[in-house]
Amino acid sequence: MSETSEIPQSPPEGGIATEKPVPTAAEQKKQEPEEKDPFKLEIEGAGDEIRELLKRENFIAHDNDDLIRQLEDPNRRFATLVGFRREEGRELPVKRFFKGPLPQQDPERDEKTRLAFQRQTLAHYYLDMHTEVPLAEIFEFNADPSKGPMYAVMATYEEGSGIGFLRGYEDIGKLTPKHARLAVRAIRGLAHQENGITPELAEVLDKRPAYQDFEGFEGNMTAILDKPVIGAGKPHSEDKRPLHKILEERTRIGGFREKALSLVACLKTTIEEGQKGIHLVHGDLAPNNLFLGDGIKAEELMFLDFEWAGISGNQILAEAYDFGNLRARSWTNEEFRDSLDKEMIESYASEGREDIGRAIVTLGILRSHMNLAGFFENYPPEKSEQQIQIERREATEKDIAKAWEVLGLNPKA
In what order do the strands lie in the sheet with 94-101? Predict the structure, then answer.
């Protein structure tokens, strides 16, 4: 044997030595520990935080499977759970509602989600403590991320023999004239909050120009009127036209833009008289943000979701914003819409200020119905030609003329 010959290796005990095959690249990848997506880890961490919060807040039972489903939903912004909680002074656990923001993969969306939670929680707590606005009681919360995970523990919504949540178009029809009276009372209950609004709350509240002052409202109206839209249905054109041109055809009100802005201008003095005090705005009032109880287990009408709560220095514009949003979005229920008009006007007439009530109704109808029409007139044909969308658009645009009629004016004259 030469010095350069390879010396045979001894076989291992119990077998003959064999050459170990070199794993392929695919096999090597499989053998490597799987690296988890950082955002998935963040979501899992958020789930652990929520479970720890529930434990700390004395929840003894909640649906963990539901929590897992919510954590796995990439579009979900908030975790919402109903569970049983032990509370001091109560012999048995009570059902409570838990809510907290979830991490969002997009940094901008994440920031907006956290701000929305702060806004709705602080506004809800303020209204619960300082007003008669009907809403669910809030027991514990943290809206300051520097103090730990943000969350809120609230009373659950128990409809009893009432209707409960309004979830679809068909549920809008369940709103009655009595609900209109209660809604107007609640809208007006948001006004005159000069005492108790903390700097922390004022900082996060929305401040939309449409309800700040006359100039802001007029500017918002001008932007709506001049919004480029394709026009619903056939024929439509990708060469967009201003909304006011479309509305002129739909409503048969000639010179629509000039008449709409003239209507706003004729109320300038009235609007400016309302430029005093501090007033809150729900900001997103709609049937799906109402809860209808039976008057025993829950109020007959309660406001939900203050995610877009705002602050205003003008009572008339603040009330017109919320009134108009609720009215325009109640498109399947003409009786309810007419009752809202009647209740707002009569609530001010009883105080010797009927002109204020009529101004609020006029401004609310004009702005909100036009604003919604701007969305409908920009839907693609495949959506705008659906029967439900045709009915929705026609009901919304038909009522625009009432903005003039409330003041005894004829827009077609």
Answer: 59-61, 78-85, 94-101, 151-155, 138-142
